[in-house]
Amino acid sequence: MDTTVKAPAVSGDQREYLFDNYKVLLILLVVIGHFIEPSNDQNSFLYELKWGIVAFHMPAFIFISGYFSKRIPSLKKMLCGLVIPYFVYEILYYLLYTFVLDKETGFYFARPKFSLWYLMALFAWRLFSPLVEKIPGCMILSVIAGILIGFTDFGNFLSIPRILFFFPFFLAGKKFDSSSLARFRNRKGYLGALTILGGFAVFLFTDNYHHRLDQKIFYGRYSYADMDMGSVEGVLVRIGCYLISFLLIYLFMLVLPTEKKSYSYLGERTMAIYIFHGFVYSCLRYGSSILTSVESNLECLYLLAFCFFLVWFLSRKPFVLFTNKIAHLF
């Protein structure tokens, strides 16, 4: 979901379509994850699907954002491409909530609305990662910071908990060398990755322990106390979250296609989809009861089909041109 840094090229001007295809999958999961949230506890399939989505979709997006941030843009470009759009979209959300949906809100610029925390976090990661990377053992230290922030109760203030929780994925993406995938991207690696992913899916539908937990353990926003976990359980669960997310990130790299597909262009338009799906979601969530009334499997299929359509629709040029214009106002 990044429009300010070009994707690293393999050779010449050749794009790495693996990451375009990966972003297509992830933006689809972002949309599905949001739209099924109000009713995922009313249908067992949606419930486990939500678990599978939150386990890796944002860590993977942030990992890819880190990969595309190997060359950090200037502070001026970051201000124009991230900070100014953040304020613009915050104001648009305020207008939507106040004058259309009659939802109580305010100009809480220090507390991002809906999914805008990502813009604030991306600015922070890009700003501080060059400094953090100079510290020996920065990856381990970033994981420790992500674990320790779970003991605090910052809430949504400046997205601090999320910034620290997800920072290891951004750093890992910056350090990642895509050429290292070559020796694993073979038939054996492909089948092995599919087997593990299939095993993870079976685990979700058969395991009972994760039903005792809150899906918010992967959100990074909530403290251990908020999720009714003691200190020891909270730390162990968060370590488990890191391990699962990193494993899934790399497994999907082994099974997704590396060549250009008919849908690959969507990977270049994820910012428009990310921004505008939030407005659509807010209208349906707070302006009607449709998202909270999904129960039957047929209704689930209709909702998922709508998510697929919405991703395609929001990738059209008017939405892309709008977000690009906002990112280049100055």
From TrEMBL:
Keywords: Membrane, Transmembrane, Transmembrane helix. Pfam families: Acyl_transf_3 (PF01757). One of its GO terms (molecular function) is acyltransferase activity, transferring groups other than amino-acyl groups. It comes from the Bacteria. Residues 19-312 form the Acyltransferase domain. InterPro entries: Acyl_transf_3_dom, Nod_factor_acetyltransferase. The chain crosses the membrane at residues 21-37, 49-68, 80-100, 106-128, 135-152, 189-206, 235-258, 270-290, 296-315. This is Acyltransferase 3 domain-containing protein.
